[in-house]
Amino acid sequence: MARSSTLVILNGTLIDGSGNPPVPNEAIVVEGNRIRSVGRLPEDVRLEDQEHVEVIDASEQWILPGLIDGHCHLSFGFPQMTGVPSSQGTTSAEFSTLRAARNAQTVLRTGVTSLSVPGGTWFIDVAVRDAIAAGLIEGPRIFCAGRFIVTYGSITDNEPSWVGTPEHTNGKLANNVDDMVTEVRRQCKHGVNYIKMADSTWGDLQTIAPHELRAVTEEAHRRHARITIHARGSGSTRAAAEAGVDWILHADLATDDDLEAVAQAGMPIIPTMTFLARGVEVGLEYGRSQRAVDAMKRHLDGAVHVLERARALGITLMCGTDSGNSPLMPYGELHANEMEILVRYGGYTPLEAISAGTRDTAFAVGLEHEVGVLEAGKLADLILVTADPLADIRVLQGGRHLAAVIKDGRIVDFNGQTVAPEFLALQPATA
């Protein structure tokens, strides 16, 4: 059933995502899908009016903006599902779409109310985004790219050259500027929010030339789409800064000079260190070789240096985990772990890390003026947790301390699906 028209959250401790210290919460008033006020209860809101006002008592709880994962893949095919004889990309588009929708629901129920999806198979992520927006299914707000634009030797170019990159893979081969620009136009036609370029897997080889990246960036921006790049290497990080992409994914091997170029260009980085840390911690258990784990340790060490240097240079660091990109990265478990990484390796306080994972990462979902901070006029995405994240940032992980998730002004039902009232209104009456 549709909830009351006004939602009021009383008491508890407010961490609003702006970086301001926590304060006792008087009242957060939500009307429709936006926050009407934060602070003193408006005189015209009568708590006793139970027909129109729903009240949540958040005593002994902490209230935060909805979490944002700036790097999560929904339609790759990983982690594999028990009983489904498939590896990455070899299932049908139909099955992959249903699975991606389920993945989105899982992510929402761990407190992630916005999700940036930098690439997938077919245009599945676009479809899931639109289904969520239409009220057909529940899930986070999604801001997504299409398939990676890659060249020979880039990440996801795993098949022989005569096979190329079939639709069920997450890369699209384009080995010259004309083909790259055409692919940008094709993806924009099909509704992507941004373009994802992808250099080599580990950055040991620069597979996308600077002039190619400039051309793609220009075309994406001409079509009002943002652009990012998988760039672990020094050369690709520098090229991304000079091309003017909107943000950079990884940058593990960037030099100090490269980072100075990034700082001068004013673009953020999503280090995505959760994936590296996870590989080092449990890679052997998942069948990774010792050599592969050692390589991930080298990249983690490089990323720690990048994290420290980027912060010193004033580069904004956004939070993303790469959940869904491999069997190591299950949905619903790791989406808040990047904040712990910032605290553990980057010298952030928990309060600073929360702002990084909410206010700052809002840029990666195209909603930097709409979500990430709890204040009047913003979209009503927030979570309530039963343990203090400033005492231990890890309490935000895995949804284990969630008391409530509110997305778009609606309380998420952890046991079932809450259908949008306007969608209910479209259904025929039953006897």
Automatic annotation (TrEMBL):
Entries under Gene3D superfamilies matching the protein: Metal-dependent hydrolases, Urease, subunit C, domain 1
Cited SUPFAM superfamilies: Composite domain of metallo-dependent hydrolases, Metallo-dependent hydrolases
Residues annotated as domain Amidohydrolase-related: 62-412
GO molecular function ontology, one term from the record: hydrolase activity, acting on carbon-nitrogen (but not peptide) bonds
InterPro entries reported for this sequence: Amidohydro-rel, Metal-dep_hydrolase_composite, Metal_Hydrolase, Metallo-dep_Hydrolase, OTAase-like
UniProt protein name: Amidohydrolase-related domain-containing protein
Protein's organism: Candidatus Entotheonella gemina
Organism taxonomic ancestry: Bacteria, Pseudomonadati, Nitrospinota/Tectimicrobiota group, Candidatus Tectimicrobiota, Candidatus Entotheonellia
